[in-house]
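Problem 12. The chain below contains 252 residues. Write out its predicted structure in token notation.
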Amino acid sequence: MATEVSWATERVIGAVAHDHDGCLEALSHLAKGVSHDLNNTLQGIGIGMELVYGCLEKDSAASGYLSLMSSATDRLRNMSERLREFNQFLEYRPTECSLTSIVDQALARVVIAGYEIKHIEKDRIDDYGHVFGDPLQLSAGLSALICNALEASPSSVTVSAKQENFDSLQVAKQGAAVSIRIADQGPGIEEKHIDNIFDPFFSTKEKGRGLGLPLARAVVLKNNGLIRLRTGQRGSEFSLFLPIHPTKPHEA
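Solution.
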């Protein structure tokens, strides 16, 4: 029998008007420019490194330094790819989409990003038929949250679904919804960071890029949903509340 978790902090994202601020469009335009400049710079660095490497002996100390530089540029290329993802979301194409398909596509994205998914437990995903939204956007937002959970606790992440109503969150929004819950057993999020974790490029992780949670937030709000965050010493839980039926879009 599951033990009821006592959460130190609970927050609903998207419950008030100023949360619906056109953040996805703003992030997409910003990301397009940054990604373009970053790719051009990395291309020049890569060419220079190849020329230098060709002049060195394989076992020289300088070759080892170039390998470190290569690893750093690979991280930057990965960041550039994440930034380019934002550009896919300027066009919103909502439809009735399979919840199982969204989760499967999200997990495929997680694998492509280099994470292992063998410790991810799926619970009751197949019990619910569909949600209403843009499947490309939703799978990307969900994958960002799963990656975030894996970084917090690589050996234990649960992705589950539940029939809900928006009014269960005690917000003005009403109607039937499905919640997708992503739970980890990491150290939790400190109270002082709660208001900043959805800000672009903010991260409490040593190697964090600060792009995953802003992407998830922007996608969910664009798709007329809400995010509930619960966190404490025994881990964190992000729940995406998504409409089952078409709803009035949020004002940008």
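Discussion. The longest helix spans residues 23-53. Students who got a different answer should revisit the alignment rule from Section 12.3.
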